[in-house]
Design a protein that fits this description.
Length: 358
């Protein structure tokens, strides 16, 4: 078992509900092992600028249900420079911090690798509303974000029904359409546009015209923020006008934006954040470093960060020349299987939607 005096915990990149629940679990699990905990403030900026607080058992009381992050988050460009990195390492040395648990998304994990390579064992825990880390089935915050979208869309549905309107709703997700796809299905959307599947605009227009003729009064269309027109405009706003002009149905547009990031984490996010947080400390105790905690087929497991990041690139078709060279044939097969599974799941759900929206 590895021995640690103090570990640091930080939240970095875009915030997500459940980050606080993870902070609590990491802190309490470390204390259970007799390890002191520092909460690094403002993501990697707190390491670069030496900004942190002590975290004892009472400091993380009653935070499991709070949205946002009590440690604050930041996008710290300085940390990407060698100078910033050296400042971060010096901060760790000054405070006897001999390991870090970093909660965030893929950018945060790149930073975690940089720390690990410089001798500070670092474990990543996913905190991202987008569910956009391909190697894990689930990222903490996703369920809460989806529930927030569904609640908002249910309200829009009420008023659409009263006034016989269509409402195009744009939701977050960056280049991952999972929030849009799953909330679209759960809200009975008449059309869903996501980056992963080509959107058939003509078919959607025909559907809306036919639905209107058959007496449908309320139409919900969900568009992922990662879908753009050929000339780079956010597609949701454009689609709103296309629908109104071509179908004659009065059409409104709503961008839910950061509303979807806030709020108390759901039970699913609290449970997963707790399991992942505790597991991250256990991994450190086993001497692991440079890995992320993932959920695969309902089990909490770990992946090397480089494996996870390259799987992501493979899925998003952004693999650089030679990026797979350092991986074994077995690893590459495993990556392909993960990507195929995810793509097939998206297609399967999209087809269910297409069969039901009328
Ligand atoms: P997320 O973790 O949600 O993907 P970002 O991509 O903004 O969010 O990354 C969060 C932070 O992680 C950045 O502000 C930076 O401090 C650090 N980071 C991102 N990319 C790298 C990198 N290539 N090397 C070192 N640190 C990085």
């Amino acid at each position: 078992m590895a021995k640690f005096d103090t570990i640091g915990v930080l939240t970095s990149g875009g915030d997500a509900p459940g980050m606080n629940t993870a902070i609590r679990a990491i802190t309490r699990r470390a204390l259970q092992h007799g390890i002191k905990v520092k909460g690094i403030l403002g993501g990697y900026s707190g390491l670069v600028n030496d900004s942190m607080i002590d975290l004892g058992a009472r400091d993380v009381s009653n935070i499991e249900y709070l949205g946002g992050t009590i440690l604050y988050s930041d996008r710290c460009l300085e940390f990407k420079t060698e100078e910033g990195m050296q400042a971060a390492i010096a901060t760790c040395k000054r405070h006897n911090i001999d390991a870090i648990v970093a909660i965030g998304g893929d950018g945060t994990f790149r930073g975690a690798t940089d720390l690990s390579l410089r001798g500070i064992p670092t474990i990543g825990v996913t905190g991202s509303i987008d569910n956009d880390v391909t190697a894990t089935d689930y990222t903490v915050g996703f369920d809460t974000a989806m529930n927030t979208v569904v609640e908002a869309v249910d309200r829009l549905r009420d008023t659409c029904q009263s006034h016989a309107r269509c409402n195009v709703v744009e939701v977050m997700g960056r280049d991952c359409g999972e929030i849009a796809l799953k909330t679209g299905i759960a809200s009975g959307a008449v059309a869903i546009a996501i980056p992963e599947v080509p959107f058939d605009e003509d078919a959607a227009i025909e559907r809306i015209i036919a639905a209107k003729k058959s007496g449908k009064r309320s139409m919900i269309v969900i568009v992922s923020e990662g879908v753009f027109t050929a000339d780079g405009k956010p597609y949701g706003e454009v689609l709103r006008h296309v629908i109104q002009e071509k179908t004659g149905v009065e059409t409104k547009f709503a961008r839910l934006a950061h509303i979807v990031r806030g709020g108390a984490p759901t039970l699913r996010d609290r449970l997963t954040a707790t399991e992942m947080g505790a597991f991250a400390v256990d991994l450190l105790m086993e001497g692991k470093s440079d890995v992320i905690v993932a959920e695969v087929a309902g089990k909490i497991v770990s992946y090397d960060i480089s494996f996870a990041l390259i799987t992501d690139k493979m899925y998003k078709k952004k693999l650089a020349e030679g990026a797979l060279d350092k991986f074994s044939a077995e690893d590459v097969e495993k990556m392909k299987a993960i990507c195929d599974f995810r793509a097939a799941e998206i297609r399967r759900l999209y087809d269910i939607h297409l069969g039901l929206c009328r």
